[in-house]
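User: As part of a screening pipeline, I want to sanity-check one entry by hand. Below is the sequence and the SMILES for nicotinamide-adenine-dinucleotide. Please return the complex as structure tokens so I can compare it with the automated output.
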Amino acid sequence: MATGIGIIGTGVISRQYFDTFAKTSGLKVVAVADLDLERAGQVAAARGTAAMTVEQLLADERIEIVLNLTVPAAHAEVDAQIIAAGKHVCAEKPLALDVPSGLDILARAEAAGVRVASAPDTFLGTGVQTSIDLVRGGRIGEPFAATALWGSAGPELWHPNPGFYYQPGGGPVLDMGPYYLTALVQLLGPVRRVQSSVIPVRRERVFGAGPAAGKPVPVSVPTAAAAILEHEGGAVTSVTLSFETWGHNNEPFFEVYGTAGSLRVPDPNWFDGVPLLYDASGVVTAAQEAERKWEPVQPSAGFIGGGRGLGLLDLAESIKAGRPHRASGELALHVLEVMAAINAGGAEISSSPAAAEIVGLRELN
Ligand SMILES: NC(=O)c1ccc[n+]([C@@H]2O[C@H](COP(=O)([O-])OP(=O)(O)OC[C@H]3O[C@@H](n4cnc5c(N)ncnc54)[C@H](O)[C@@H]3O)[C@@H](O)[C@H]2O)c1
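Assistant: Here is the complex for your manual check:
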């Protein structure tokens, strides 16, 4: 039987989740809710589901998992409501605004006997899963380093209501960091130490879309940072995340380097994409190195044709099968701890999640 889903928050990103759920038979959206009742009603009508108040949705016994698609500042509070109603949580990123709030969510869930899953779930698509499969399978030898570079000029250029991107829980580190860091933790292992510099850029920002178009954007978070991450196994990643980059030529840029080759990882903000492998086996001269090509690698792992919501599908299947789910609260908490350390100028990291099992190559169904 399909697992009953409730969705709280029917803004911009909810569309992508609905599109994914339409491709699966294992999940049924029973109802949606939003502080903005009109928006919830419109989305419900467009997607053939019911609109309810948050309280009604949480009391509905057909709903087993609640998807929290509210803005970052509301994540912890809404998660706590979901957990108190005895339902499993699947939440958008970041897990919470800070590590204590993230720990509190996990403690509440454990006490209530429910599970927490969190975005991003992009790493369950074929692009990053195939990359993880290659690295764990030894195709680049011993991985020792990675580079992750992401920049844009800022979401106020396109988002109709982008204020939250510049308040706590936003900024490039907490907004885009989850995609890169979640993939990096799967590729190179948990992070044990962060060194970082917040890059001070003070440019006037103006809303480019939505009701506040033309007005200045209030900013209270770092808008660019560069960091060095030391992973538990000794590998080192350099990562730059920025809302200050005009034109973003050649970005995103995401490569992993090993003793026997290099891997270009597809954009971890999306689900597919083709990894490029530079296999250095047998190369001993500069001519051989130049002759050897980066080769595209066909998918060997992950959900084919995935979209936002895969983590929820995996959560529902994992609950039924009694196994750990992959986009776990523990993984999201670790990523949150790393992101907080990047914005703080560096720190030792104490959390250390287990590696998520690779998803065998499969359809959504
Ligand atoms: N927009 C994107 O491209 C995108 C991509 C990936 C992830 N996300 C994440 O998804 C989340 C939502 O982003 P969005 O772009 O959809 O934002 P949005 O502002 O378009 O929508 C958020 C919705 O949540 C509702 N809401 C806020 N607090 C609430 C509460 N306490 N109870 C009920 N409803 C509440 C708002 O009324 C709004 O309709 C954020 O965490 C964001 O980081 C967004």
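Points to compare against the pipeline: The pocket of nicotinamide-adenine-dinucleotide is lined by residues 8-13, 34-36, 39, 54, 69-72, 74, 78, 92-93, 161, 175 (CB under 6 Å). The longest strand covers residues 143-151.
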